[in-house]
Amino acid sequence: MKRNVITGMLVLVCSFLLIFAAGCAKDQGTVKSDTGLTQAQSSAEGTGEQSLQEQSLREKLMAEAAAFQDIYFNFDKYDLKPEARAMLEDLSNWLSEHADFEVTIEGHCDNRGTAVYNLALGERRAEAAKAYMANLGVAGDRITTISYGEELPADPRDCESAWAKNRRDHFIVFPKKQ
Amino acid sequence: MKIMRAITGFLIFLLVFFSGSAACAKVYIDINSPAFQKFPVAIPEFKNLQNTGTGENLSAWFADQLSRTLKITGFFNIISKDAFLEDQATAGITAGRIDFSSWSSIGSDFLVKGGFSYSGDRLAVEFRLFDTIEGKLITGKKYWGNPKEKKAMVIKFANEILMALTGKGGVFDTKIAFVGKKGNRSEIYTINFDGSAPARVTAYDSLTLLPRWSPDGSKISFTSYKTGNPDCYIRTLKNRKTERISHFRGLNLLTSWSPDGEKALLVLSKDGNEDIYVKNLVNGSLKRLTRNRSIDVSPSWSPDGRTIAFVSNRSGSPQIFLMNSEGKNIRRLTFEGSYNTSPCWSPDGTRIAYEGSSNGVFQIFSIGENGDNPLQLTFEGGGGESPSWSADGRYLTFSSRFGKQRRICVINSNGLNVRILPAIRGIDIFKTPSWSGHLNLY
Fold first, then answer.
1. Residues β-bridged to residue B208
2. Is B292 helix (H, G, I), strand (E, B) or coil?
3. Do B230 and A117 touch (CB under 8 A)?
C-alpha cells in the first residue's frame, strides 16, 4: 500500500515534469532547466501493472489539462470574444470537476506599439479571462495571471497572421502543489 | 564631489592659448533653426611637429578621428580631402602660415589644423579651429598626456568646437542603455553616444526589460522576470550591486526617476489594475497617484519635478495625459491619432517626445507641453518607438525596425541626421533605449 502511494507520487512528479517540459517547448518562454527528466522517467519505468493503469488515468487527465487552447484578442483590445468565452466556460467546468488543479493565465500581445503599454495590455488580457472564470465560480486563488507583453510571441514573424496568433491568453493548467 | 571627480578623472592636461579669441568670436548659427545648414569644415592631416620619427605617426589618425567625431554630432559637413587646394607640405598650422582663401574657396567655412609631438612617453597635441572667411582663430587648445588618451583628446577638442560654434558642448560623455533580445531572452546593455564600448549590464538569462538611468548616471533600474514575476531592480554600476526595490504580484515597472534621484515613478498592477505610484527610494514609502479603472502607464517626470506625463486609455485609446506631481489636475495632451504612448520630457521642459501611430506605422513625434506645435520627427518605413532625449536636448534616441531586426537610432531633435548605432553580435532586437546624463567619461 505504502509502495503504491510512493509509486503514485513518482508518476505524478514524472507526468508533471513531462507536461511542464512540453508546455515550455510550446510557448518557448519561461524556460527552466529540464535536467532530471530522464532520471524521473527511468525510475517510473519498473512499476507494476496496477500503477501503470493509474499512470494512464493520470496521463489522460494531464493531457486534458494541456489541451485548453489559447484565446485571441483584437489589436489594443482585451474584451473577450464569443469563442474565448466558450473556451473559458469549458475550462471553468473542467476545473470545477478537478479541484486539485489550478491555472496560470499568461497574457500576450503582438509586437506593435510600445513595450511598456503592451505589458499592461497583456495583464488586462489575462485579468479579463480570470474575471470571467471567477464569475463562473472558479475560486480566485486557483487562478494566477502574468503578463509577458510583446516579449514571448507564439509566432515571431511580422505579419497580420502572426500578430493575430500573438495577441492571446495562454493557459497552463497544472496539479496543485502540495 | 563633482569637482573631485573632475580632478581625478582629468588624466589629460590642457593649455588654452589665445584664450581671449573664443570670447569675442562672432555668434555662429542657431542649430535648432529649421534653416540650419551643417557647418562645412576641413580637417587636413595633423603635422608631426617633431620630425624625429619616434612614436607612432598619428597624422592621419587625428584627422580621421576628429572628422568621425564631428560627423556623429550631425552638425558638420566634413569636406573631402580630394577637394583640398593648399599645399600640405609647406603650409603650417598657425594663422600666419595658412592660405585661408584656398580653404574658403572650396566652401570650407571652417578649418581645423593640428599637430602632435612626443616627449618621452608623453604625447602632446595642439588643435586650432579657424574661421576661413575672416582668416581668424576661433579657439585653440593644447593637450598632453599618455598616448592611450589620444581619443579623449580628440573628443575634448570636438567639445570645444561645439562650444565655440553653438554655445553648448556635446554629449560625447553620455551612454545609451537598451534592451538586447535574442529569442526569448533579453539583457540590459549600454553603448557610448558615438557607438563605441558596447557592454552588457545584466546576465540573468531571463527576460529583463526597461532600463532607466538614475539622473547622476550611477545606477540603472530595470524590470526582470528572473524570479518568475516581473519585479523591479536597481543596479549600482560601480560595485554591480543589485537591489530589488519592488516585487508586488503583477507588473513592477520603473519608468522615470525624479530629477533629484530620490524618488521613482512606478507602474504597479498589484490590485489587478495598472496604476501609477511614486516610491521614495530613500525611505521606501509608496504613494498611489492614479485611481482609475483604465490602463495608466509610462509616467515621465518633467525636469522641474512638478508635472508628470503618462499614458492612459481612459478615453478609449492610449493617449498622453499630464497631471501634477500629486496626481491631480489631469488633462489630455494628445488628440491626433488613436495610439500615442511613451512620453519623455525634453531636458529644458518645453517639449514631450512620444511615439504615435501614423498610417499604421509607429513614428516619433514631439509636442509642446501645452499641446502646441506637434512635430513628426521620423518618417521612415521602419518607424520609431520609445524615444529618450539626450542630456542637452539636441538629440533623441529610439528603436526602429529593419525587417526582423530592431536597432537603436539617434536623430537630431529637429528630425534630421538619423544614425543607427552598431549592432552587437548575436542580438536581433535592440529596443527601449534610455539616454544617460553626463558621465564625465572624458
1. B224
2. coil
3. no
Give the total number of structural domains in chain A. 2
Residues 23-62 of A with CB under 8 A from B: 28-31
The answer to whether the CB atoms of A121 and B404 lie below 8 A apart is no
Cβ atoms of residues B347 and B392 within 8 Å: yes
More confident call, B441 vs A174: A174
Q: Count residue pairs from A and B with Cβ separation < 8 A.
A: 95
Say whether A151 and B186 touch across the interface (CB within 8 A): yes
Instruction: Say how far apart CA A19 and CA A160 lie, in whole Å.
Output: 30
pLDDT category at B55 given cuts 50, 70, 90 is low
Chain A nearest-CA residue for B248? A146
- In this complex, do A152 and B228 lie within 8 Å of one another by their Cβ atoms? no
All residues of chain B having their beta carbon less than 8 Å from the beta carbon of residue A110 are none
Q: Distance of CA B91 to CAs A113, B53, B65, B226, B421, Å? A: 57, 20, 21, 62, 37
SS3 A25: helix
Task: State whether residue A79 sits within 8 Å of chain B by CB.
Answer: no
Q: Mutate which of B185, B277, B298 to test chain A, going by most A C-beta atoms within 10 A?
A: B298
Residue A77, chain B, CB below 8 Å: the answer is no
Tell me, yes or no, whether A36 and A115 share the same domain: no
- Check A120 against B432: CB less than 8 A apart: no
- Pick B355's closest partner by Cβ from A30, A114, A121: A114
Q: Is the ipTM of this complex over 0.85?
A: yes
Mean pLDDT estimate for chain B: 91
Cell triple for B212: 532607466
Cβ of A123 within 8 Å of Cβ of B355? The answer is no
Q: What is the pTM of this model?
A: 0.86
Say whether both A53 and A3 belong to one domain. Answer: yes
Say yes or no: A45 and A124 in one domain.
no
- Give CATH for domain B175-435: 2.120.10.30
Which among B228, B273, B386 is the nearest to A114, CB-wise?
A: B386
**For residue A104, what is the domain's CATH number?**
3.30.1330.60
Q: Which residues pair with B366 in a beta bridge?
A: B353, B375
Residue of B nearest to A118 (CA): B297
Q: Do A81 and A25 share a structural domain?
A: no
DSSP H/E element including A164:
helix A160-166
CATH of B9-166, one of 3.30.300.30, 3.30.200.20, 3.40.50.10070, 3.90.70.10: 3.40.50.10070
- Please give the angle made by the CA atoms of B173, B176 and B181, to the nearest 5 degrees: 155
pLDDT at residue A33, as a whole number: 36
Across A8-22, B34-48, B51-65, least confident range: A8-22
**Residues A121 and A55 grouped into a single domain:** no
Collapsing DSSP to helix, strand or coil, B369 comes out as coil
Phi/psi at A134 (5° precision): -65, -40
- Dihedral of alpha carbons A72, A77, A79, A82, sign: negative
B251 and A147: CB-CB below 8 Å? yes
Range of the domain at A129: 69-178
- The pLDDT, as a whole number, for residue B52 is 65
SS3 of residue B318 by DSSP? coil
- My answer on whether A48 and A94 are in the same domain is no
Residues A77 and A63 in one domain: no
